[in-house]
Amino acid sequence: MSFYTQMKKSSKSQVAVAEIQRLSTSFAGGKLDERANIDMATGEAREVLMAVNGLLDASLRPMQKLIASIEHMSGEHDK
User: Fold this and answer.
1) What is the pTM of this model?
2) Could you give the count of Cα atoms lying within 13 Å of 2 in the half-sphere of its Cβ?
3) Contact 34, 19 (CB under 8 A)
4) Residue 48: exposure state from Cβ atoms within 10 A (0-12, 13-18, ≥19)
5) Digitized pLDDT (tens) for each residue of the chain, 79 residues in all
6) 25 near 4, Cβ under 8 Å?
């Protein structure tokens, strides 16, 4: 049985799905600092939410470095 099939049968997975949907809405609204609340899930659902948080952090890291570089160049330009 696949992980997805197991998650579909679990009420705990509903918590994870609802939290991921909340994150999706937050990101679409520009709230890029939002993360999944892992305290509301247990077991595999909690592991999925932790992985989602890790994925968000890793995917935003390059953008954060770019922003810092632009701010630094802007500051140098204003001197």
Assistant:
1) 0.72
2) 3
3) no
4) buried
5) 455 555 555 677 888 999 999 999 999 999 999 999 999 898 999 999 999 999 999 999 998 899 899 998 887 776 6
6) no
Question: What is the identity of the amino acid at 34?
Answer: E
What is the SS3 string spanning 4-73? HHHHHHCHHHHHHHHHHHHHHHHHHCCCCCCCCCHHHCCHHHHHHHHHHHHHHHHHHHHHHHHHHHHHHH
CA angle at 19 for the pair 15 and 24, rounded to the nearest 5°: 150
2 Ramachandran zone, left/alpha/beta (phi>0; psi -120 to 50): beta
Q: Are 63 and 51 in contact (CB under 8 A)?
A: no
